[in-house]
Design a protein that fits this description.
Number of strands: 0
Number of domains: 2
Shape: elongated
Number of helices: 9
Order of helices and strands: HHHHHHHHH
Radius of gyration: 19 Å
């Protein structure tokens, strides 16, 4: 059986292919995790593996492209005047419920890649700003550190990885944060 191949559109297709790869990878990371098959990502995007590797030479490059939107969304929220630490943590939690891969990658990197560590630093920096404000306002204990918050986010993520249904992940996340808040609130 012969399957019809799509005509090669050359460089004109590059932006479309890149966007399709990012969308397919976002879905694959959400459903199958960081170790998802890159062959399946390329197939879902409707491109060949050569196109995948032209845009993203390795798995980390693809993950960074996928999760750049997530960190940018967090940074935009944190940059808004009056944004509380609790709001940032709520958005981190929503992102974790949608796909545990992003936070797992940042909090517990599979390899010490400086690009991943850069994402972690960006997350830490925006948490640090919110934490300082929450401590000044007396909502969070003075001895809580940014590292403590990253550790709490990691604990939530590791527990949510084991829960397949989004509705159950949401309930578990709410309960976990309720318990964790008792440890950090002033």
């Amino acid at each position: 059986m012969t399957t019809a191949r799509r005509p090669n559109r050359g460089p004109k297709a590059a932006a479309h292919n890149r966007a399709a790869l990012i969308a397919a990878a976002r879905e694959a990371f959400a459903t199958s995790g960081y170790d998802t098959s890159l062959t399946d990502v390329a197939r879902a995007a409707g491109v060949g593996q050569g196109s995948l590797y032209r845009h993203f030479p390795d798995r980390v490059s693809l993950a960074l492209a996928v999760f750049e939107d997530s960190i940018a969304e967090l940074e935009a929220l944190a940059a808004k005047s009056g944004t509380a630490l609790e709001e940032v943590l709520a958005l981190v939690t929503e992102q974790t419920i949608a796909s545990t891969t992003f936070i797992r990658l940042v909090i517990i990197p599979p390899q010490p890649d400086p690009r991943i560590l850069g994402l972690r630093e960006r997350l830490g920096a925006l948490l640090e700003r919110g934490l300082a404000e929450a401590q000044r306002a007396g909502r969070v204990r003075a001895d809580v550190t940014t590292h403590d918050l990253l550790l709490a986010i990691g604990m939530v993520t590791l527990l949510l990885i084991e829960i397949p249904a989004e509705t159950e992940r949401r309930k578990a996340a709410e309960r976990i944060w309720q318990m964790l808040r008792h440890g950090i609130e002033a």
